[in-house]
Amino acid sequence: MAATNDGAEAASGGEPAESASQLPAPDRQAQHVRLPGATEPIEVAAPFLQPNQLEGFRIGVTSDRRSSDLIDAFERRGARVVHAPTLRIAHSQQDGPLLDDTRTMIAARPDLLLATTGYGVRRWFEVAEADGIGSELTDALADTTILVRGPKARGGIRATGLNDSGMSDSETTASLVDKVLAEYPPGLTIGIQVHGATDEVQLDRLRAVHQRVLVVAPYRWIAMDDSDARVYKLVEAICSRQLDCVTFTSAPAVHALFTAAEGMDVYPELIAALQTQVCAAAVGPVTSAPLIAAGIAPIQPTRFRMGALIRLVCEHLEQNMVERIETQNGLLQLRGSIVQIGEERVQLPPTALAILRALVRARGAVVSREDLALAGYSDDHAMEVSLSRLRQTLAVPGLVATVVKRGYRLNV
């Protein structure tokens, strides 16, 4: 499998470098955003965060471990969050294999140790300590040169009383291996703590040059089973454009979502939604890679941290996904599922929202019944009923006009 984690990630959905309660003061740090037609993220300045700036927006969260950091941050700003972890972290029923690998590592006393995630390092040493071999592990690594993938792995190493000798350039496993191959002689004994989805490509690169490569895997990711319907509901919500944004904190989580969509026979619909109306937000370039490969241009923060991802999602939705149009009844704004006309705000159900969004995007031009047709409509009567309900919900006479024998339009 190719590289699967970014610098801020560990466990099922990534180990946040900043929890929601630890977010730094708002600033104007440069971020990457997607603009229409762009194939790569574009760097812009992010302005200050505002309270309630996500009111009306609907966000999907695909991470498992510490997902509450994302959920709490978004909900505090007014968003409705759909949580559907596409993967979950799994520990063995008993840690026999991990302990066996640990004893092998202790006996080998590796020349180099590569630490990839803070969570993985902490769990590794906790399991060793619980089995009574924690001090032996620390002693065996005392003279080992330790390289870390990112700040969280560095923190994990230092919490054990050990020190690292350097960090990868871009906080990825691939760049960590690049550093080893460029700066150290061949023929060494290498130890590597891997994260939830083992990167065999990078291990093979090490094995091709070095005498021995020892692996410890303190945890792994597994897909959610069929008894958990949340992923399927998330796929349906994306395909029907009932979400404005979906966040990803690991590449395996992206692949798992794609796999679920394939199993539901809606993969093309999922991709089309993420390419157009549903924003995909990734914590860093490794997580972005499978999205980009599928033709999706995600937004991603410059710093591969949870706090930066939260900030970017907030600002991107507010700046780029509020639709506005001047009408005869005043300024109409669509903020996710909320329509605002003047000072009045109304929450719209999915069907009414889809109809109004199509009318708004027509900018006053006539939209035919055929173009307004939504899944589940069997005849023109159903369309008329839905439009009637939309008008009643909006309670703004004349806003949605009927053009006889042609369709409907906003009265702009």
Automatic annotation (TrEMBL):
One of its GO terms (molecular function) is uroporphyrinogen-III synthase activity. InterPro entries: 4pyrrol_syn_uPrphyn_synt_sf, 4pyrrol_synth_uPrphyn_synth, OmpR/PhoB-type_DNA-bd, Sig_transdc_resp-reg_C-effctor, UROS/Hem4, WH-like_DNA-bd_sf. Its EC number is 4.2.1.75. Residues 322-412 form the OmpR/PhoB-type domain. CDD domains: HemD, trans_reg_C. Keywords: DNA-binding, Lyase. Residues 1-33 are annotated as: Disordered. It comes from the Bacteria. NCBIfam families: PRK07239.1. This is Uroporphyrinogen-III synthase. It comes from Cryobacterium levicorallinum.
